[in-house]
Amino acid sequence: MSEEKIDKNKHSDELDEAQAVEPAIDEGEDNDAIEELDSKALAAAEKRASALSEEEKSERIQQLKPIIEGALLALGDSMSLKRMQSLFDEHELPSKGLLLEVLEQIQRDCDGRGFALVEVASGWRFQVREDYATWVNRLWDEKPQKYSRALLETLALIAYRQPLTRGDIEEVRGVAVSSHIIKTLSEREWVKVVGHRDVPGRPALYATTRQFLDYFGLKSLEELPSLGELKDIDGLNEALELESAPDTNISADDLAPKPIDYEQAQQAADEKEAAEGLDPESGEQQPVAEAEAEAEAEAEAEAEAEAEAEAEA
Predict the structure, then answer these.
(1) How close are the terminal C-alpha atoms of the chain, in Å?
(2) Phi, psi at 123, each rounded to 5°
(3) Are 130 and 115 in contact (CB under 8 A)?
(4) What is the pTM of this model?
(5) Residues ≥6 apart with Cβ < 8 Å to 170
(6) Using one digit for the tens of pLDDT, what is the confidence trace for 69-96?
């Protein structure tokens, strides 16, 4: 078996680990919010829906529409089909298929209006159409938060090549990844740690979250723009009014997933530990190097915070 094939298999294991972690977390959050629906009640709902005539189904949809519309407006956030079903008593529980037809009708009713019903990763929600954002944004005095090019490049790399480590990001961007950037992305719940790579130091593997998909109005990662659409990355930077970053040269090709050279990654990790004064055997920080590393990290965080503040100004 070739080394390249081994690398791909290991990378595949990391992807499997990341995909296994996220649904478990999201399902747990959903179950905390609503009471588990009885499987017999769900089966009965499906049976009732299948027995409806076309006229009865149409009448039932018209009964459900205002309830779902009201619930979505009251919640002010995305709502899953499961949570919609939890609004009803067992004897009137609608099937998922019936709810989907209700939602499709509500979507059609929104045509030509200033808002739309859209499906995102965590469910369905009403949102203002992008065409009218200029006027709606004037309801709030504060300026929309702006992010540095460094932060957005880091987020893009995680989104397209997840799961990956800070070292992977640094290899592509050619500069160190500030802890402030990772902290900001984590606090916004756009990225999270989904595992650790099995190399010296066991660096954390980062991946995007369901909140990331919701914020950008996506149902899944498959809806991210294709790499072909991102070829004009300089034009994208100009449109987003991002600060130039002459020390980086990231392109759309850099976002494409690539097999990881684990031997090279291990060598890089060893070199990084040596540079930081880590004992190869114990992994403990040596006293002098520890102070230097902390000072360097603090200076880096302060510099990044100043850059973020300038970008927001």
Answers:
(1) 55
(2) 145, -150
(3) no
(4) 0.59
(5) 176, 177
(6) 999 999 988 999 999 999 999 889 999 9
